[in-house]
Design brief:
Layout (H helix, E strand, L loop, with lengths): L1 E6 L8 E6 L7 E11 L1 H7 L17 E8 L11 E4 L2 E3 L5 H4 L10 E2 L19 E5 L4 E2 L7 H4 L5 H11 L7 E5 L5 H10 L3 E6 L4 H8 L3 E4 L3 H5 L5 E6 L8 H4 L2 E9 L12 H5 L4 E4 L5 H13 L6 E4 L4 H9 L6 E5 L7
Parallel strand pairs: 10-11, 10-13, 11-12, 13-14, 14-15, 16-17
Antiparallel strand pairs: 1-2, 3-4, 3-8, 3-17, 4-5, 5-9, 6-7
Length: 351
């Protein structure tokens, strides 16, 4: 099946309209007509081959996918045409390793990403959601229970949402917990909303005065300027969890000392160069821990979507047409978006 898509033929070329081939629907497959696809910062890294993993070209990114089921395989009992569904960053895995059996497909050694992962189908690697349709094994399809009018704003939950939800859930955030969210961007703004919905006392950390009022409106109980020693000092040894979404090198020691005994600092960002050295005394003295986290498995992602539907959590988005993606990438590099771009995939038909 030939469908319209938007991607690039080389790392130094802009994205453009192109046609791609999708496989036929197999017995356990679900075909989805994509309505919207979120624009993630990792999409930009991949199309420009900035991670050093070796991007395959033509590259069609996009892993925050929402739409409607248009066809199901003969052995698919749980989905039917017209269902509202989503696809995140995982479209396959080995299905039988310890991680897969526990529902942590995101940590499977043979996890297949929604784009740029080797597969036997044409063109030899996965191509993502900047396209009209996608066909995925039923195991990796997620049900969306938000109202249809919120569908575009649900799309970023499939990556940004689960990325912040997973550590919040793992560290049992809820009433009586004090949680810090560092960075008020694509991930951080959803993190504030989720931690607030979970009932925690939420403190947002920022370096931008313009984000102060925005953070309070998102649900933060307090806002702290990272550049203010006086404001930081007030919170020493008081946090149960700090979720750091910043993808640039910065001083982790300043955050470590804010954790109480047994507190945790979870890192979500991947900086282009290492953070400054740790003062080990800050780590050891209160039995503090630094951990990393990446997206979530399929069961946890479904749990996150259901939680967000119940508490009316969606991303704050700017909806764009397909032919605005290159401009959106440049604006994203400048931080000129509040807080996520989402593509209207219906516009692929006219580019």
């Amino acid at each position: 099946m030939i469908v319209q898509a938007y991607g690039t033929y080389a790392s130094d070329k802009p994205l453009e309209a192109m046609k791609i081939t999708r496989r036929t629907v197999g017995p356990h497959d679900v075909q989805i007509d994509i309505a919207y696809c979120g624009i993630c910062h990792s999409d930009l890294h991949e199309v420009r081959d900035e991670w050093g993993f070796g991007t395959h070209f033509p590259c069609i990114p996009g892993h925050e996918i929402v739409g409607r089921v248009s066809e199901v395989g003969t052995h698919v009992p749980n989905f039917k045409p017209n269902d509202l569904v989503g696809i995140g960053s995982i479209i396959d895995s080995c299905k039988h390793c310890e991680e897969c059996e526990a529902g942590f497909e995101n940590y499977c050694d043979d996890m297949i990403g929604t784009h740029n992962s080797p597969i036997p189908d044409e063109p030899g690697w996965t191509v993502g959601g900047y396209s009209q349709k996608i066909i995925v094994h039923e195991r990796y399809v997620l049900r969306i229970r938000h109202p249809e009018e919120q569908l575009a704003a649900v799309a970023p939950l499939l990556c940004a949402g689960i990325t912040v939800y997973s550590p919040l859930r793992h560290w049992k955030v809820g009433p009586g917990k004090k949680v810090g969210i560092v960075g008020i961007g694509g991930l951080g703004h959803i993190g504030i909303k989720l931690a607030h919905a979970m009932g925690a006392h939420v403190v947002a950390f920022t370096t931008s005065e313009s984000k102060y009022k925005a953070a309070r409106m998102l649900g933060a109980d307090e806002v702290v300027f990272l550049s203010s020693p006086e404001e930081m000092l007030v919170h020493v040894k008081s946090f149960d969890l700090i979720v750091d979404t910043v993808a640039a090198p910065h001083d982790l020691n300043a955050l470590l000392i804010l954790l109480k005994k047994n507190g945790n600092l979870t890192l979500l960002g991947v900086p282009p160069s290492p953070h400054p050295p740790l003062e080990m005394a800050n780590l050891l003295s209160k039995h503090r821990a630094i951990t990393g986290s990446m997206v979530g498995g399929i069961p946890e992602t479904q749990e996150m979507l259901d939680f967000c539907a119940k508490y009316r959590v969606v991303a704050d988005i700017e909806l764009i047409h397909a032919d605005e993606i290159n401009d959106a990438y440049e604006r994203m590099l400048k931080g000129d978006v509040q807080y996520r771009f989402v593509m209207d995939n219906a516009t692929l038909a006219v580019v």
